[in-house]
Automatic annotation (TrEMBL):
Protein name per the record: Cytochrome P450
Keywords: Heme, Iron, Metal-binding, Monooxygenase, Oxidoreductase
SUPFAM superfamilies xref list: Cytochrome P450 (SSF48264)
Family under the similarity heading: Belongs to the cytochrome P450 family.
A Pfam cross-reference name: p450
Molecular-function GO term, any one: oxidoreductase activity, acting on paired donors, with incorporation or reduction of molecular oxygen
Signal peptide: none
Cofactors that this protein relies on: heme
Residues reported in the UniProt entry to bind heme: C516
Lineage: Eukaryota, Viridiplantae, Chlorophyta, core chlorophytes, Trebouxiophyceae
Amino acid sequence: MSCSHGCGVPCTVRISGNSQHDLMCNVQIRMVGPALTSLKTFSRSLPNPSGGPSRGVGIAAAAAAQRSAHDRSDGTLAETLIDGVTQSLALGLSAVSIAADSLARIQRVVAPLPAGFPPGPGSEVALNFLRSPLEFIDSLTQQYGSTVGLKLGGEQVVLTGDLCLSRQVLIDQADVFGKEGTAFFPGSSLAGNGLLVSDGPIWQRQRQLSNPAFRQRAVETYAKAMTDSTEAMLATQWQHSGRRDVYKDFNALTLQVTTQALFGDDLPAAEGLRVTGAIQRAFEYFAGRAALGFIIPEWLPTPDNLQYREAVQQLDSAVYSIIDSRSAKLATAPATGARQCLLDQLLLSKDEQGRGMNRRALRDELMTLLVAGQETSAILLGWACAFLAQHPEVQLRAVEEVQQVAAGALLPADVNGMRYLQAVVLETLRLRPPAYIVGRCAQRPVQLGAFSLPAGTTVLVSPWVLHRDSSVWQEPEAFKPERWMPLLETKSYMSEMSGLGSNGAYVPFGAGPRNCIGTGFAMMEALLVLAAILQRVQLRTVPGEGFPSADPRITLRPAKVPLFISAL
Ligand code: HEM
């Protein structure tokens, strides 16, 4: 017997004429409904959170506290006072909003998918998704096509790898498909309200102020951090032949590159160690949360959360002291050209009114750049080396090219002459896009192609699916850097990063206004690091080890990349 209330749950047990289900529905509609509405209204009246495991309601109060301090404060004392008061309020408010969140979630889990939604499995599929995201995405698209309607963790979700619909979401209607309200968002006190999660005018201003730090000229000044750190790795850990998990090494390397590019190389050694130590601890925790799909709110005082909070506090104190000493230094002796680190660029950037970022905004952006730029780059390097080792003929051709272009120390301009290596990187990003899904939320009811989506629908655009579309890619599963060569004969590799690429199905760095601000940085880093490695080292597969398996969480990381390295 099916429900007459439209909640979609089959009724089985009858109690004196009424089914138990009728009873539950009545309780839900008569009592929970109004309570839910008022709690939801209350939650909505709070400033919108910067993200969270569900629609973010669970951490609304904490994030609201954070944001109100962020928006209003200019100085340390004001920030501290506002933080203190708002954080105490936050704990109380969070309990209320998490209750609202749970009720809303239960209601959404039992509700059917809206009419007009794309076809897909009708029941909740969060477990299948968490267990094996790539296989699950593949099986869904095989069964239902490139656009699928889902119920995921109680959220109404559309997954798409359709060329036109992806373009609509990321570019043509970027104003309708915003970040605000997106489900499964890795919001965290670590990255605060930085570029990755903020929206609307705050995002717009921060992006405008951050753009100069990522122009090509600026990126070239960070190249020294990339080549120096790689040299150091080659001269120490990679000095001797042997088997290594190169993915582990690349995580340390990209952390070194990012901190050095952000803060400059005159950071006192002790300060540098303090920062990297705190980042590593915070990142470990962050990865643990990601593995659980961010279901445990960050503000709950679990042992993990308390340790994490301590790591973030240590990181904050180190970063604030770097910000202060760097701005004092800039005031007396302005750094120029190659001496400027990314923090200098951010400190010097001003809006039309001549105002820059306040300390909190600076801190949030620096942390966001660490979060967004470190792991993704390590993932790209890990997969690229795995492909190079698996395809010795590709590696040989890349080595010959690198030796031809630069026999000695590498300069940023050298990468322009390494077209085959560029093709290797583009092909790696196609087959193993570190960001394999990117999320948006419909800010109002909207027509997505033939489908009608209610406001609040989360849309997950999948580079993983787009990059394997057999209508645009020949032999989509094959690693073939050659496929890129005709394009690279006439265009720069960066041209592939505009729009959805030249064939409309290539988005490793996203697309539209919210595309990756660090694209040029990441490409320069990958090319310089790989070129330096290929100048000196041969990469081989380890007998008995297959191609590295993926361990997809928020990003498409390899579980490990064991390779045999030996001097050329
Ligand atoms: C291989 C390396 C990288 C990949 C694959 C990658 C991928 C992406 C993607 C797909 C997005 C868009 C997300 C969305 O649409 O929701 C993004 C955004 C972003 N990335 Fe990257 N990224 C990489 C490296 C970096 C680096 C090195 C930095 C900084 C140093 C960085 C900073 C950011 C920031 C701040 C955003 C948010 C931009 C905004 O919304 O305005 N990324 N990245």
